[in-house]
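Quick question, first post here. What does this chain look like in 3D?
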Amino acid sequence: MADASTPGDVAAMQALLLGTETIQEFLAELARLAALTVGDGLSCGITVQTNGRPLTVAASDALAAQADEVQYGLDEGPCLHALRSGTWVSIRDMASDQRWTSYAARALQHGIRSSLSLPLSGGRDVIGAFNLYSRVAGAFGAAASQRAESFAQNASGALTIAVRRADHVALTDQLRASLASRTVIDQAIGVLMGQRRITAGEAFAILRTTSQNRNIKLRALAAQIVAGAGAQPPQAPPFDPPR
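> Answer (accepted):
Ran it through. Tokens below.
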């Protein structure tokens, strides 16, 4: 198989990354694009390892999701082999393949005749598997396999970037929430200082003790004090983390 990536694949990946809002949306579009790019009438599932267990995070249609789930239930099959070994697996005809006979029998019941599974790598580690299914035997010849490998190489990089972007967004949200919490607590301390003519340290001690005695979160208690004083508790402030 060729190692070269096609410019069309790269452009399509870039468009997906820029045009989707969430990693879930990106993965769903990636699965659909893969099925369309590699050949006609294909289904695609994307498997990742989560807490030591395989999970289909996106599928182009129900057939791909079902084929993946059959393998998880049996703990065998081409997509799991690609995920665990880091090597691609082609099945020309489920009716004659002898490697995973229990899986092949179930796949035939779903109307699947051939498949191609390729690992998705993130640097040195395999982060997932890219699974293509066809209702036609011999659907993954040399040309289709070359397109699939090229797509999988680009998908590996795009998936790694998407995961990092998701982590970045999660971190940003956490920092926004932390800043909002700190701000409302500072406001409540100011209210108590003005009402009781006490120091900031004494005001914070009162907040902490009351929070523990009433079994209420410090931020929620602070928001109640600020609202009781006629002020508006702050919303999460804008935050631009360093790049």
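The chain has eight helices and five strands.
The domain at 7-166 is CATH 3.30.450.40 (Beta-Lactamase).
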